[in-house]
Amino acid sequence: MTPTVRIVRALCTLLVCGAPIPALAQSVDTVHADPVRTDTGWADTVRADTAQSDTAADRLGLWARTSRASGLVISSGKTYNRVEGLPVYIGPVFHDSIGAADLNASVMGIIRSANTFHWDDQNLGHRIRADMRVGRGRGYALGVSSYDVMTPVETWQLPDPDAALAAFFWHRDFRDYFNRHGAKATARFNMSARSSVSADWSDERWASASTRTVFSIFGNGKAWRANPMMDAGRFHVGTLRANIDTRNDDINPATGWLILAEYERGTGTITDFGPTSPLIRPGISPNVTYGRGLIDLRRYNRLSPTTWINARLVLGGWLHGDDLPLERRFSVGGVGTVPGLDFRKYEPGAVDVSQCSDGTQPPAGNPAQCERVALAQLEYRNELHSSLFDFLNARPIRLRGVGLTVRPTAIAFVDAGRGWLVGQPLGTLRYSSNSFPRFGTFRTDVGLGLDLGIIGVYVAKAVSSPKEPANVFLRVHRRF
Amino acid sequence: MLTRFFPAERVVARAMMRLSLAGSVVVALAAPLDAQKVRLEVGLPAQPALADEPPSVSSAGLLADASMRDLLANGFPARLHYRLERWSSGRWFDDLKAAFEWDVILKYDVLGKKYQVVRVVNKKAEPLGDYPAVADAEGAAEAPYKVAIGLPKKGERGYYNLLLDVETLSLSDLDEVQRWLRGELKPAVSGKKNPGTALGRGVRTLVVRLLGGEKRHYEARTGKFRP
After folding, report:
1. How many angstroms separate the Cα of A390 from the Cα of each of A394, A415, B27, B181, B219?
2. Between helices B66-73 and B134-142, what is the axis angle to 10°?
3. In this model, does residue A339 exceed pLDDT 80?
4. Is the confidence at residue A435, as pLDDT, over 70?
5. Nearest CA to CA, how far is B168 from chain A (Å)?
6. How many Cα neighbours within 13 Å face the side chain of B75?
7. Tell me: the pLDDT tens digits for A355-400?
8. How far away is chain B from the Cα of A177, in angstroms, using its nearest Cα?
9. Helix (H, G, I), strand (E, B), or coil: what is residue B52?
10. Is residue B161 part of a domain?
11. How far apart are CA A172 and CA A381, in angstroms?
């Protein structure tokens, strides 16, 4: 295969890696009113608010955001990573409605671009699903699915587009993956278009996935970070999940809450244990039953028309039962959490509260091994006077007919986080189940950023490790 | 997307080179835009009527881009999704007091050779007319509209914030792949077209998609006022 064809193929496949990414912000003229008090009597007219994300145009079918036609489709897994490259989904889809119920079904085969689409077990998968949804805002949904897919270990850290772009452009994969093969039943109650509670039950086989030959724009010849070996076995997993979203806008929120709370109970048999650092699993038993929780709490506040202060708190970890399998463990550090710290960095001899190792050489890939994690993020955003960047806006860039104009926002942020093990207290690595590490043991950083509406450029400096050099990074999405 | 910038100067150089390359791709793909000044306004009523009369929203130049007009003329609808918010200024935080959303849809009826303009409010479609010329249709879509948002109480200091998303066509995965397979990539890959052109188009599409370019977002806000 010639290099040109390979590049065309890579681009072609990436092009279907569509993901919701913030729209471009453009500065426009505004009309200002002087804040002058009046003595006129008031009449508070009560009118219905229509704030909702599922717009009338969508409901009336005047504007179709996506194709709803049944037929044969080619799509992507909306990801790009070192174990599968780009997964390409091919297969028939079916959409229909009966009364108030929308019915969707699809039978998708998956071929992965790793090893230049080589036809082998790791490059093939499937996702078959059937679901029914009643109600466009408030309502409920039921679904069943069967799948053989690669799944990230920690999806809470970094959004899919940032992770995929880092892998595709910079040869940096900030996630670990494992194979999930099984079936799942889901029931969901939608309280609104963006808030829901749901319950899943699945029967799955988990297996390790190895790093493969995957193309990237820069650093293509370098070796990828090893994808850590995970626990292999069969699990039954039940999950309760609540997603509460009161934000005024899901892409550029100025106020509101976003709360994700999840409880997972898993039971199963591990047939092959993944390697771990010492202390991670005091006793090994193939039969495990565990309880795991995760809460991701985000609050957005507007201080003035041009300033915001936003906060995020993540608490997650072991709740009861046996040790968590490696697939369900945690870590902090890196672009998505505490960016002043290098992602998965190993410092010989030092107790690592980011990945939870005792200072000895960790397993290949330095996997997430913590049983609990806490992360707090705070950011202050200040929209800059656009005239500072008028030299960019004077001649707006045009890409395929779309004019881009920057609308800069300065950002100052602080982050603090760490992980730990649960059990007999031991130094700063292991704590009893009802205790919480001292704040002084947390890994912290401070940073500055410039969000151009198109992309954000940030600098973060670790505070807890003064000798750690500063890191520069880019984010397509907001940090959170 | 993480790059250490010191202590090693080589790392700095490499990082800068990579950023330059990435930037060069964008700049190389960029072309000057016709001087189209977009104007979006939230018009407040006179000071004595701030608590009695709603604000009005108007705009100009949103669809003046030639490529957007081409898309419209070829049957792709344009959607203008408005959201007007009323915020009150608090001591520490500002509060969102009311919000109102509506859509304006522009479609070209190829058979009738006329542009149809519809405003959708509270699930109800209100026709704004059929126009033979696109400029007239734009005029109807962007004409001042009094927004039925909850009004502030007397003495309640606050401001209005307007968010507008303009979409000209849907770029779902399926649409994108179908378009490539149908018109662009297939001939290029099979040797009937210059692969470099397809590559360039691909990079442009990629950059636009990465930047969220299929949708334009505008914001405007009033100054603070007190009825």
Report:
1. 6, 32, 17, 40, 17
2. 110
3. yes
4. yes
5. 10
6. 3
7. 999 999 999 999 999 999 999 999 999 988 755 555 554 444 444 3
8. 19
9. coil
10. yes
11. 28
Check: CB of residue B109 under 8 Å from CB of residue B122: no
Pairing of strands B215-221, A24-27: parallel
- Alpha-carbon distance A254 to A362, whole Å? 42
**What value does the mean pLDDT of chain A take?**
84
List CB contacts (< 8 A) between B211 and chain A.
21, 24, 399, 404, 454-455
Are residues A178 and A206 in contact, defined by beta-carbon separation less than 8 angstroms?
yes
The confidence score (pLDDT) of residue B169 equals 54
Instruction: Give a yes or no: residue B164 inside a domain.
Output: yes
Q: pLDDT for A193-224, tens place per residue? A: 889 999 999 999 999 999 999 999 898 889 99
Q: What phi and psi, each to the nearest 5 degrees, are found at residue A243?
A: -130, 110
Establish if A304 touches chain B: CB-CB under 8 angstroms.
Answer: yes
A155-172: string of b/e by CB count within 10 Å (b at 16+)? ebbbbbbbbbbbbbbbbb
A188's tokens: 């969901």
Contacts of B76 (CB under 8 A, 6+ apart): B168, B169
Nearest to A346 by CA among A228, A210, A177, A214: A228
Global pTM value: 0.79
Tracing tokens 């662009």 back to the chain, one arrives at: B184
Measured between beta carbons, which residues in chain B are less than 8 angstroms from residue A23? Answer: 165, 212, 215-217
Q: Nearest C-alpha of chain B: how many angstroms from A278?
A: 29
3-state secondary structure of A115: helix
Q: Which domain holds residue B131?
A: 36-169+214-221
- Chain A residues whose CB is inside 8 A of the B152 CB are 44
B61 lies in some domain: yes
Q: Which residues on A lie below 8 Å from B92 (Cβ)? A: 303
Residue B135 lies inside a defined structural domain of this protein = yes
Domain count for chain B, please give it: 1
Q: Is A380 on the interface with B (CB under 8 A)?
A: no
How far apart CA B182 and CA B179 sit, in angstroms, is 5
